Amino acid sequence: MAVRTPTKTIRQRGTLRRPRRSRGARGRGAAKKHIWLFEEGNASMRDLLGGKGAGLAEMSRVGLPVPPGFTITTAVCNEYNARGQTFPAGLMTEIRRALGTVERKMGKRFGDPKNPLLVSVRSGAKFSMPGMMDTVLNLGLNEETLRGLAAATENERFAEDAHRRFVQMFGKIVLDVPGEKFEEIIAEHKRRTGARLDTDLIAQDLRAITRAFKDLIRRERRVEFPTDPWKQLEMAIRAVFDSWMGKRAVDYRNFNKIAHDLGTAVNVQAMVFGNMGADSATGVAFTRDPATGEKILYGEYLPNAQGEDVVAGTRTPHPISQMRDEMPRVYDQFQKVAKMLERHYKDMQDLEFTVERGRLWMLQTRSGKRTAQAAVKAAVDMVGEKLIRRDEALLRVEPEQIYQLLLPRFDPDDKAAAEREGKLLAKGLNASPGAATGAAVFDPDTAVELAQTGQAVILVRPETNPDDVHGMLVARGILTARGGATSHAAVVARGLGKPCVAGAEAIRVDPQARQLSVGGQVIRQGEPLSIDGTTGEVFGRAIRTIDPDVSKDRDLQTLLGWADKVRRLGVWANADYPRDAAVARAFGAEGIGLCRTEHMFFEEDRLPIVRRMILAETETERQRALDELLPIQREDFVGILKEMAGATVVIRLIDPPLHEFLPRYDELLVEVTELRVRGNDPHELAEKERLLRAVSGMREQNPMLGLRGIRLGLLFPGIIDMQVRAILEATCLLAKQGVRAHPEIMIPLVGHVNELRAVEERVRPLAEKVMAERGIRVRYKFGTMIEVPRACVVADEIAGRAEFFSFGSNDLTQLIFGFSRDDAEGKFLLQYVTQKILPENPFQVLDRAGVGALIDMAVKLGRKVRPDIELGICGEHGGDPSSIEFCHQVGLTYVSCSPYRVPTARLAAAQAALREKQARSERDR
Ligand code: PEP
Ligand code: MG
Q1: How far apart are CA 144 and CA 113, in angstroms?
Q2: 451: burial class by Cβ within 10 Å (0-12, 13-18, 19+)?
Q3: Which positions are catalytic?
Q4: Which of 597, 600, 655, 811 to mutate to test the pocket of ligand 1 (most atoms within 8 A of CB)?
């Protein structure tokens, strides 16, 4: 083959050069240039050339063996879609010119009946969107060029196979004929000819199959298959652009919060063939194991095959290590290329390659998607290898990935029991780690239906493709019978952070019958199934899960240790019980930012006393109940303060409306009515009627805006007194034992400074009294939650009395938006997000423009009056990375979140500090 590509080998080049900023890409003319030859671009041009295009350009630029080609820019895609599916003027002429260059390099001509150039047409957006966009290979074939290809390669079977693949891909992707219909035709031919594998089909078989494909297309689409290569090319480019706005791609972008106006580029590239015999192959590889992060060349390849065979999972490929024995020279070269690319990009690379008659061609390099475990290990290892600095390592790992590492795993005892019971059904590839249990479902739509009813589901498919993505999004885990570690299922699952077992070949999946069978056992839709994506095991029953012990994860501890050195924000936890506080501390919490005392009231042994306190008809009766509660609360506080010895514990006084401690009105009404009808238990009836009267007397139209928080305390001051006494007594008790307890008394739902004044006037003298009684002085702070918008506006007045603020961003969001959280999330909020009325759920990600602006205002006002005021946040946002970044920016002292989010928050806080540093140094430059 007369291929004239860059001949400089990697060895001659030594190290790769850093990408130069292309003048053209940044200059004004760049937007007008629709097409870039690979050798004209570079790695920094991802916006314009897409990730794949920029990678191909960079590899070409540094002299790696890349088949020649060009990229049609993302700007063209946007223009095409904006102008109602119309190409910019002159685009086809530019394409002809660029393809002319490729023809000259390859020594072949597009559409030449004697020695035809074939091309691949692939999409490539700025961010990789696995399986979302489409690829057409072998484009340029028709009856004439097919003969030319057969003659030029002296291989008729190869040419017929290339044609068959082209018609199939073009039919499916460009003409939208369902893919299964092509597969059915192949299966039918195999059955008829007795062929077991695709490779058993001979040239005539393939020819007949292609003819059947064309008939199918005619029947389905009422069009003749296009024979003109230029027409084929134009249609394929359009199909890529159209697919950018296709449902699958739009869904994926919505889920992953990728902007819709990025557009996709189209890469047109000379074909090289991995299916030209035993000295040809195709494969994909990662420079490190994407599941564990281990530094090994990880991947798979298939001899005598084209790329789609590996990715589609229709044939199970060989591990790449086998290539060392089968193609030692090429393996050696590939290994060097892989190493060099990783050093060049300073990150783990995901590579695609083809070997054509013993010659290596690189088809893709991009940053490799990896599991949480791999992300942490690779980042830490690369610092050790002096590839990156600590700051970069910290920015490499997504805070959400840390959360994934804390996810439950199977309880080894229960798993062993399942094995003994013969419930281990099969072992497949450990494609994406984690344990998942759920009801088996065999199609994506049912997965969505069941998930909407709150059921955990495991999606089981023979293999997945982009049409399954909506089911994969809602499933707890994914199981496929076919496909390797780089199959669609594996790649998408890893991206989503979901457990996946792929290529469990022993299992027969029958989507029609909605069941799977293996070794005589059958699992039907709805029956329990468990998969372990870390080991590849599949079990035919539910298995209990347990939490992993992250204290033993050395890489994670190293990374979090670096994070702690960098962050400015403190990371505290919300915990109501000593056991939660212990978990939080083990995860690195530096204090408790919110202890919701009312949760203690809900405990079974306390509820009757709490009810008595609420229902008391005289003050003496109420005080008796409070006296009973006092020692119990004191014990609670001793427990949590002791657990957090030396650290601050913010204890919030009772917050929810009192009726939450009583039975529901409607249920009581039914019970009373029944008792009246039966008339056989006058004593119980009288008791229930009394309860009903009390509950009815406390009913509110809008309890969240009613008698709760400090309003309740001010109406029933005995509760405040009891809680404050319990806190102080616990602290004095511990102080005498030598335990350093630092309680902070927090008043909820304050909107007016007079509310705070009224409580303070009770709390301070009472605290003094307890200390005098106990004969010891202890430190405590008095402060407030800021969760009513008015409190933000008058935060200066409030800071005059409060030694600390803790932003209750749950209530603050609810009250600023005027959304009732419980109603909004279930009813309209999700729709608001899908319709882009709101960019995200404001109860998850802090609304910076509204809620954030008020927080910022309160911070500034509070500091003006009390410069050393302690400022925290204890709503759900305290564990969300984007909200944490905001908290850093407005200068809070700490964020407080659920214990399991503490490690995530530590990393997010470090990233916020690093980003600020980066932005500052960019400004100074
Ligand atoms: C809040 O409102 O943010 C808060 C932490 O309090 P709660 O969720 O208990 O109302
Ligand atoms: Mg609140």
Answers
A1: 5
A2: buried
A3: 488, 874
A4: 811
Q: How far is 873 from 881, CA to CA, in rounded Å?
A: 13
Interatomic CA distance for residues 62 and 39, integer angstroms: 9
pLDDT digits over 631-668, tens only?
999 999 999 999 999 999 999 999 988 888 888 888 89
Atom of ligand 1 nearest to the CA of 875: 3
CA atoms within 13 A on the CB side of 450: 23
Could you report the per-residue pLDDT of 557-615, keeping only the tens digit for each? Answer: 999 999 999 999 999 999 998 988 999 999 999 999 999 998 788 877 888 999 899 88
- DSSP-derived secondary structure letter, 270: E
CA dihedral 572, 577, 580, 584 (to 10 degrees): 20
Q: What is the dihedral of CA 905, 910, 914, 915, to 10 degrees?
A: 10
CA of 873 to the centre of ligand 1 (A): 10
Q: How far is the CA of 749 from the centre of ligand 2 (A)?
A: 7
Distance 813 CA to ligand 1 centre (A): 10
- Residue 657 Cβ contacting ligand 1 at under 6 Å: no
Burial of 724 per CB tally in 10 Å (0-12, 13-18, 19+): buried
Closest ligand by atom to 749 CA: 2
Please, which residues have CB less than 5 A from ligand 2, an ion?
A: 787, 808, 811
Phi, psi of 429, deg, nearest 5: -85, 135
- List, as one string, the DSSP characters of 203-229: HHHHHHHHHHHHHHHHHHHS-PPP--H
Identify residue 267 by its one-letter amino acid code: N
Rounded CA gap, 438 and 417, in Å?
A: 18
**Residue whose CB lies within 8 A of the most ligand 1 atoms, among 572, 576, 595, 596, for a mutation test:** 596
C-alpha R_g of the chain: 33
Q: Are 499 and 407 in contact (CB under 8 A)?
A: no
- Classify the phi-psi angles of 745: left when phi > 0, otherwise alpha if psi is within -120 to 50, otherwise beta: beta
Structure tokens at 17: 């050069």
- The model's pLDDT over 797-823, given as tens digits with 9 standing for 90+, comes to 999 999 999 999 999 999 999 998 777
Q: Are 369 and 284 in contact (CB under 8 A)?
A: no
Average pLDDT, the chain: 90
Query: Looking at the predicted structure, is the pLDDT value of residue 185 above 90?
Result: yes
The Å distance, Cα 403 to ligand 1 centre, comes to 22
CA dist., res. 766 & res. 845, Å (int): 40
Sheet of strand 537-539, all strands in order from the earlier edge strand to the far edge: 424-427, 537-539, 528-532, 435-441, 457-461, 477-480, 500-502, 429-432
Q: Which whole-number Å values give the CA distances from 279 to 201, 373, 612, 891, in the listed order? A: 19, 36, 85, 62
Tokens linked to 529: 């199934």
SS3 362: strand
The response to whether residue 811 sits with its C-beta less than 6 Å from ligand 1 reads: yes
| H-only helix segments in 616-657 | 619-643
List Cα–Cα distances, 528 to 407, 411, 437, 539, in angstroms: 20, 16, 7, 9
Residue type, 3: V
Six token digits for residue 379: 């980042």
- Distance between CA 713 and CA 745 in Å, rounded? 13
Is the pLDDT at 108 greater than 80? The verdict is: yes
Identify the band that residue 403 occupies on the pLDDT scale cut at 50, 70 and 90.
Answer: confident
Helix or strand (DSSP H, E) at 914: helix 902-924
Give CA separation, 15 vs 12, 63, 336, 337, 340, in Å.
9, 11, 11, 11, 7
Mean pLDDT of 291-319: 81
